[in-house]
Amino acid sequence: MESRKRDMELLSNSMAAYAHIRANPESFGLYFVLGVCFGLVLTLCLLVLRLSCRPPARPPPRPQDLSEDEEEDDEEEDEEEEDTVDRAASESLLPVTEIPLEPHGPGDGALAVNVFASAEELERAQRLEERERIIREIW
Asked: Does residue 71 belong to any structural domain of this protein?
């Protein structure tokens, strides 16, 4: 019986709130905008607080006398990090291509210049060029 009373109370409060909002749309809009602004200001304050309380970055520890196994592990980790950095850098760069002003064929003395950021992009461009050549021959 208690849960039914709570359900009825919730329903009547919801209906009263809806009636109040319908009667005063300006105050509802004001309170809504005020709540959104308060939330944005609170988020900004917490973000600034988090950034200002961050501990300063520590320099990497200097390598001391390491055994050969540890040195090999460090070298492998360094190589993996370099590969990851190189891969990320090549993915972030956009391919740079030079578009000729006039169409030219393979025998008119045009220079082939490698203007791609990575070998994968060069290979992709060569495959695309080969497809285009085949399509031109078919047409």
From this structure: no
State the sign of the Cα–Cα–Cα–Cα dihedral 114, 117, 120, 124: negative
CA distance 83 to 87: 6
How do residues 17-27 score in pLDDT, each as one tens digit? Answer: 999 999 999 99
At 21-62, the pLDDT tens digits run 999 999 999 999 999 999 999 999 999 998 888 777 777 776
- For residue 28, is it within any domain? yes
4 within some domain: yes
Model-level pTM?
Answer: 0.34
Helix segments in the chain, DSSP class H:
2-23, 25-52, 68-92, 119-138
